[in-house]
Amino acid sequence: MAEQSAAIPLSKGARRREQILQTAVELFGEVGYRGTSLRDIALRVGITHPGLLYHFHSKQELLSAVLARRDDSDALRFGLTKDVENPRELLRRVLQLAAHNTTAPGMIELFATLSAEATDQDHPAHDFFQQRYSMIVAAFQEIFDRLEEAGELREGVDPSGLGVSLVALMDGLQVQWLYSPEVVDVPVLLGAHINGLLTEPL
Fold it and tell me: Which of 80, 116, 120, 163 could anchor a disulfide with 137, C-beta 3.0 to 4.6 Å?
């Protein structure tokens, strides 16, 4: 797959679009969505404000692309795909992702704020977050269903709903971490919860 991509070089416009997206991810991660303007992004990329608007017509359009890119990037970085057969390994990678997230508080704040705002059906990011939560919950639920089939959940642990609860815990811990990063250790607390469900700790 990588060889195919290398054989088809991106067009100049596509390369510029990728550069803008990468820069937006960096700035949103550093200073948050509200603290970043399109002009800030254009300046760091080295293009004019109208030049940026040629690729992304609004800050909201750019934001939607950044959100999707961030999820895709995390999935690739930590191998969170159906290609990984071992559900325990997938949970380890979820904990690695949780630890990685603490290196980009701006992105965590962005997701926390927007996921709450986007419950309004008229919000531009409503569909994105609705689809995102549906996909992540289903993926986590599949992990626990596979663990239950393998006899790796503690006796008395009902796997139904564990996908929802893990997503809720992960999001909730990250919000508390934003308030008290010196107190709330997201991967440790998340790992303790997960290990409490398993016959053998990760």
Answer: 163
Q: Is the distance from CB of 97 to CB of 186 less than 8 angstroms?
A: no
Number of Cβ atoms within 10 Å of the Cβ of 145: 16
Token code pair at residue 56: 């992304």
- Tens of pLDDT along 28-81? 877 877 788 999 999 999 999 999 999 999 988 898 888 887 777 676 665 565
Q: Do residues 162 and 147 touch, judged by C-beta distance below 8 A?
A: no
pTM: 0.77
Cα 91 to Cα 6, 37, 126, 156: the distances in Å are 31, 36, 27, 20
User: Which stretches of the chain are assigned E, i.e. beta strand?
Assistant: none
Tell me which DSSP letter residue 154 carries. P
Tell me if residue 153 falls in helix, strand or coil: strand
DSSP letter for 117, please: H
